[in-house]
Known about the structure:
92% of the residues lie in helices and 0% in strands. With 142 residues, the protein is mainly α. The longest helix has 81 residues, at 61-141. The two termini are 49 Å apart.
Amino acid sequence: MKTPIDSLVRVHSWKLDEAQQKLSDLEALSLKLEQDLVKLDQEVLKEQTFASQHPDVAQTYPAYAEAARERRKRLETSIEEVMTLKAIAQQELHETYQALKKYEEAQANDIRRQQDVIKKKEQAADDEMGIQQYRRRKASEN
């Protein structure tokens, strides 16, 4: 039999999965941005080397370097934003986990209460059967 607590556990379990996926996606994005930054630095070094070896192309290097600096600023800003979003996502994940644990504990308590009720009913039935057997035995002895 499904109870409202079962539904709450299921919903919060889904929310936890979503929060974990969101955090995982943000971590992947953060890693990609870091890799893009490393790749940009490698490209700049390559262009510097090429410009120093080819004086006829060296005239265009300052424009490239300025564009690369702007791209670096955008990447660094994006990395900072993703770090902030990751911190928020981690907090949401923690809160969702705490809520799920609370509902799971309530569910476990509900199950224990139901089992206690069943045990009491079984014990009452056993007691009644014992009393009836005792009465029958007493009646047959008389």
